[in-house]
Amino acid sequence: MNNERIAIVGVGLTYPDATTPGEFWENVLAGRRAFRRLPDVRMNRADYFSPNPEAPDRFYADRAAVLRDFSFDRISYKVAGSTYRATDTTHWLALDTASRALADAGFPEGAGLPHSTTGVVLGNSLTGEFSRANVMRLRWPYVRRTVGAALAAEGWGAEELSRFLRTLQEAYKAPFPEIDEDTLAGGLANTIAGRICNYFDLAGGGFTVDGACSSSLLSVVTAANALSERDLDVVLAGGVDLSIDPFEVIGFAKTGALATDEMKVYDKNSNGFWPGEGAGVIVLMRERDAIDSGARIYATITGWGVSSDGKGGMTRPEAAGHRLALERAYRKAGYGVETVSYFEGHGTGTALGDATEIEALSGARRDSGPDMDRAALGTIKGNIGHTKAAAGVAGLIKAALAVHHQVIPPVTGNTEPHPLLTEATATMYLPDDVALFPAGQEIRAGVSAMGFGGVNSHIAVERAAGAERRTTLDEATRKLV
């Protein structure tokens, strides 16, 4: 088995209330939550909200973690105005976040990269809400026929109806950019990665992975495999998601996944999640190459595993399927799941999802050996909600920073621990305060993600080779620069 270790050498992120690793980490340690009322400019409350979960075409949870201050400097990136307007904002968010990841890794503006062997693999589903909205421009013929037929049935004359429809057409199309040569490429998911390759002149290949809410962690698995097989020397991996619109939010509402009350994670009263959005990109190299080049290493990826739930539900997780991903990840890592002190879980806060994940992790640890300390469990979703295609990499960044600082962060969004975490045979616990990794144990973490369709992914990480052990909280919690 190829046991190549993969180093995380750069981090770029744009999540609610955090645009740098330092801000992100400080929010995690402080337990800050980025939720606020979903702005009407994203989904008009009068059009779509109802407190009744059974109301058709409505959503019942009006809280979300949204980006507030993101702006893309198209002049700096030399992007024409027509291209900018025709392209979904996910492209620009991903490009800007990738640029900051490269700068963090010591490759500002791509300088110093092995361009022919640097690739980009990003997780994304459905591109973004902006391209979905802009397609409405092309639906005008349907709207014209429907409105025209209804008004004709009310007795409108041909001349009056024609005049009205011309006015309506102008008003209907006004918010949406005209379709031009940039529209198709600007509305596709794969071209998000391709745009990064284009801007930085990278020839290692750029493509998008869609595994629903497991997408960005699957992108890291794909990148790690390419580095292990020496197909590539550097990979930008991660995910981007800007999809807080009626299609996704009402869709989740109708599956019962949105929280009817406050969002809680791994809680006795877990009742669903609140949506989030953002982007996370990490720069990956083989560990030996990173060491040889003198790169700063946040953490090392030691193993990874992917599985599916087989005949399990399309939208509900299965413990057996997730355990298979765990087994594959730790077999590749070369150590047991029982040696891991911190797990960054998928943690959507749904009653079934939380219970299934706890069962899978606890069962895997319990079967690995009878004598072990309990491991800490947390999820970034308690801070920034469920960022869907960008969720897995957010959890990986959190885990990498935990390993880098050698600190187990407190859980956010839990009031009363889930019963599976309080029983006598429990193998995990929810940390309520900042703590050092246990003395005498390796500094290791595991990260999970699950997606619609039954896909599971897990990544094992540990302290970078040669990193000095920290012995005090004051030393370990110093601000990341």
- Alpha-beta content class: alpha/beta
| Secondary structure: number of strands | 15
Q: If strands are numbered along the chain, what order do they take across the biggest sheet?
A: 5-4-6-7-1-8-15-14-9-10-12
Count of helical regions: 17
| Sheet with most strands | 11 strands, mixed
Overall spatial form? globular
β content, as a range? Answer: 15-25%
Distance between the termini: 37 Å
Rg on CA atoms, Å: 23 Å
Low-confidence runs of at least 5 consecutive residues: none
Short overview:
By secondary structure, the protein is of the alpha/beta class. It is built from 17 helices and 15 strands.
Q: What's the SSE blueprint?
A:
Layout: E1 6-14, H1 21-30, E2 36-37, H2 45-48, E3 63-64, H3 81-86, H4 89-104, E4 118-123, H5 129-134, H6 140-153, H7 158-173, H8 183-186, H9 190-200, E5 206-209, H10 215-228, E6 234-241, H11 246-254, E7 278-286, H12 287-293, E8 299-308, H13 319-333, E9 342-344, H14 351-368, E10 375-378, H15 381-384, H16 391-405, E11 407-408, E12 428-429, E13 435-436, E14 444-451, E15 455-462, H17 473-476
Parallel strand pairs: 4-5, 4-6, 9-10, 9-14, 10-12
Antiparallel strand pairs: 1-7, 1-8, 2-3, 6-7, 8-15, 11-13, 14-15
